[in-house]
Amino acid sequence: MTDKPAKGTANTPSNAQSNAMWGGRFAMSPAEVMQEINVSIDFDKRLAPQDIRGSKAHAAMLADAGILTKADAKEIAKGLDAVLAEIEAGTFKYSRSLEDVHMNVESRLKDIIGAAAGRLHTARSRNDQVATDFRLYVRDQIDGIVHVLGSVQHALAKKAEAHAATVMPGFTHLQPAQPVTFGHHLLAYVEMIGRDRGRFLDARARLNECPLGSAALAGTSFPIDRHQTAEALGFDRPMANSLDGVSDRDFALETLSAATITAIHFSRFAEEIVSWMTPQFGFITLTDKFTTGSSIMPQKRNPDAAELSRAKVGRIAGAFQSLAMVMKGLPLAYSKDMQEDKEVTFDALESLTLVIAAMNGMIEDLEPVPEVMRTAAGRGYSTATDLADWLVRELKMPFRDAHHVTGSIVKAAEAIGLDLEHMPLADMQKIEPRITKAVFSVLSVENSVKSRVSYGGTAPQNVLKSARAWLKRLEKERSKG
Ligand code: ARG
Predict the structure, then answer these.
(1) Given this model, what pLDDT does residue 18 score?
(2) What is the mean pLDDT of the chain?
(3) Is any atom of ligand 1 closer than 6 Å to the C-beta of 127?
(4) What distance in angstroms lies between residue 20's CA and the mean position of ligand 1's atoms?
(5) Taking the model in full, what pTM does it have?
(6) What's CA 273's distance to the chain center, in Å?
(7) Three-state SS for 401?
(8) CB-hemisphere CA count at 13 Å for 194?
(9) Which residues of 98-131 are buried (b: 16+ CB within 10 A; e: fewer)?
C-alpha cells in the first residue's frame, strides 16, 4: 500500500509525502488516526459522476470566460471523460490518502492529462464543489423517488379499480367501525403518496440553485459566469450568497424530512400487510415471491419484505435527526462537520428507494380474500351507524336519541348472539316500536358502503370514479415521460 500514513498519533516527522493537493506548507504526513477520521472517499466516491459533471461545466465556463485556454479546457474535458469511464468500468483506483472524491478525481486527471489538470481548480474550492455535487446527487435521488412513487400510485389505483366494490371492515382503534371497500382503503394510500411526491417536488424546487462559484466562502476575483454553470448543470439559477452557497444543507434536510414522512406512510401500509396476512385476519395472500419460510416451522409463510419495509423508517428518520444535529449550531460558512451529511443521506434515500420497490412489488402481488373480508365486515355490529342514521332519517329522531336506541338494540342482539342483519324485527320493535322491516335495507354491509356517497366517501361508485381519475392522471404523466 502506497497510501499508508504515519503510524500513531504522535507528531513524528516523517519522510512520507504530505497531501499533494494542499500539502505545500506541511512537512509531516497526517497521523493515522487523523487520516482515519478525515477520509471520506470510502463513501463519497458515490459522488464521482456528479463531481465530474460539475468539473466539466466549470472548465467549459472558465474557457468561455477566457480564464482557461480552449485547448486546456478541451484536454480537461477529455480527461474527465476518461476518468469517468474508469470509474464506470470499475478499474479506478481510489486512494485513501487523497481523502475524498474531489481529490481522487483531480489526481487521476493529472495522471492522464498532465499539468493542465492543475488549472481546473481555478476559481473553485472543494467547499462549493462538494455542495454542488451533493445537490446534484440529492436531486437525482428525488427524481428517481418521485418517479417510482408514481408507479406505486398506479399499482394501487389499478387494484383499487378492480376492488372498488370489495367490502372489508373499516377500523378505528383497530376495532371494526364501519364497512368500507378495499379499493377505498388502497386509494387512501394513493392520496398520501400524492402528498409525498408533492413534498419531494417542493424540496426540489428550493434545492435547484447552484452553489458552484461560491468558491471557498467569499466568491472569487476571477470573472466567472455563475449563470452559465448553473444552467449547464440544470439549476434554475446560481445561489445568491456565497456564504450560504457553501454552508447550506437545507436541501438535504428537507429531502430527508420528505423521505421520513414517506417512509412513515409505507410503514403503516406494511403493518397492515403484516396483520392482514395473519390467519386471524386472513384478508390477503402474498405469493412465494414476497414471503419467506421458517427453518424450523414448516407451516410458516412470513411477510419479511413487509416487516423490513416497516422497519426501514427507523434509519430514514434517524438520518434526518442525525443531519439536523450535525447542522445545529454550525457557524458560517463551511465546517468539516458537514462531511457527515453524506453517509446518512445516501443510506436513507437508497433505503427508501428499496422500500418503495418492495412495496410496489407487494402491492402487485397481494390478492384480497373477499369472502373473509366480507364476513369480517359484518362482524362487530359494523352497520350500527347505518341503523342510527335510518332512525334519524325515517323516524326523525335526533341523532343522540337514535344513537342510544341503536346501542340498546346492539346490546339485545349481542345477548342473543345475532348480528344486526339477522336480528328479528320483533326484537327491535321491543326497543323502538316504530321500526319497520324497511330497516333491513340499510343493515347489510353492501348497502352500508353503497350509501356512503358523500364526497370522498367509500361508496363503490365514488371509489371507481376516483381510481379512474388517478389512473388517467398517472398514465398521462407517464406518457409525457
Ligand atoms: N470531503 C469534504 C466534504 O465532504 C469536501 C470539502 C472539503 N473542504 C475542505 N475545506 N476541507 O465536506
Answers:
(1) 65
(2) 94
(3) yes
(4) 15
(5) 0.92
(6) 19
(7) helix
(8) 14
(9) bbbbbbbbbbbbbebbeebbebbbebbbbbbbbb
Residue with the larger pLDDT of the pair 20 and 329: 329
User: Is a pLDDT exceeding 90 seen at residue 42?
Assistant: yes
Query: For the chain, what's the residue count?
Result: 481
Each residue of 314-359: pLDDT tens digit? 999 999 999 999 999 999 999 999 999 999 999 999 999 999 999 9
Determine the pLDDT at residue 292.
85
Mutate to test the pocket of ligand 1, among 102, 249, 336, 345 (most ligand atoms within 8 A of CB): 336
Verify whether ligand 1 is closer than 6 Å to residue 459 (CB atom).
Answer: no
Q: Is 175 helix (H, G, I), strand (E, B) or coil?
A: strand
What value, to the nearest 5°, has the Cα angle with vertex 143 and ends 140 and 339? Answer: 35
**C-alpha to C-alpha distance for 289 and 292, rounded to whole angstroms:** 8
Binned at pLDDT 50, 70 and 90, residue 25 comes out as confident
pLDDT at 216 over 50: yes
Gap from CA of 85 to ligand 1 centroid (Å): 24
Query: Strand, coil or helix: what is 28?
Result: coil
Choose the residue to mutate in 21, 105, 126 for probing ligand 1, maximizing ligand atoms within 8 Å of C-beta.
Answer: 126
Q: Which three cell numbers stand for residue 447?
A: 348497502
Task: Give me ligand 1 centre to Cα 201, in Å.
Answer: 28
Instruction: Determine the atom of ligand 1 nearest the C-alpha atom of 40.
Output: 1
User: Rounded distance, CA 203 to CA 329, Å?
Assistant: 22
By CB atoms closer than 10 A (0-12, 13-18, 19+), residue 72 is buried
Is the CB of 338 inside a 6 Å radius of any atom of ligand 1? yes
User: Catalytic amino acids?
Assistant: 173, 294
Q: What are phi and psi of 125, to 5 degrees?
A: -135, 165
What is residue 17's predicted lDDT score, i.e. its pLDDT? 57
